[in-house]
Amino acid sequence: MVNNQTRITAVFAALADPTRRRILVRLANGGEGPVTALAKPFRISLPAISRHLRVLEKARLIDRRRQGRAHLIRARAAGFKQAQDWIAQCVAGWDYSFDALDELLKNEQRNKQRKENKG
């Protein structure tokens, strides 16, 4: 459980930065590509891009492979799975709570109508 929470925390920490989110969008839209091409639209240095990529790699949101001297980067959809599952659990809990609240409000409304009809 602790390891799972550590991974989820790493995913959300990686996604907290807008540059890293833009990198993931570029990878999702363009597929695998070299670091230099991936870095082109950003107004930051190549070492800064490399630091962002290391954070994404540590969170298991990207894969890196070498082809000669080039480092090729691609998005890892599986890296989002644990965070998606965590969000789904939260949503299910909220849905249950909202359903219970809805039922309570309907019961209150029925009780109120019964009292008005009797009196």
The span between the termini is 57 Å
Low-confidence stretches: none
The CATH superfamily of the domain at 2-77 turns out to be: Winged helix-like DNA-binding domain superfamily/Winged helix DNA-binding domain
Provide mean pLDDT, rounded: 88
The biggest beta sheet is recorded as: 3 strands, antiparallel
User: Which structural class fits the helix and strand makeup?
Assistant: mainly alpha
List the helices and strands and how they pair.
Elements lengths: L1 H14 L2 H13 L2 E2 H5 L6 H13 L3 E6 L2 E6 L5 H38 L1
Antiparallel strand pairs: 1-3, 2-3
Brief sketch in words of this structure:
The chain is mainly α. Helix content is 70%, strand content 12%.
Task: Provide a descriptive summary of the structure in words.
- It contains 5 helices and 3 strands.
- Helix 1 runs antiparallel to helix 4.
- It has a 3-stranded antiparallel sheet.
- It has a domain at 2-77: Arc Repressor Mutant, subunit A.
- It is mostly helical.
Keywords for this entry:
119 residues, mainly alpha, Arc Repressor Mutant, subunit A, three-stranded antiparallel sheet, 5 helices, 3 strands
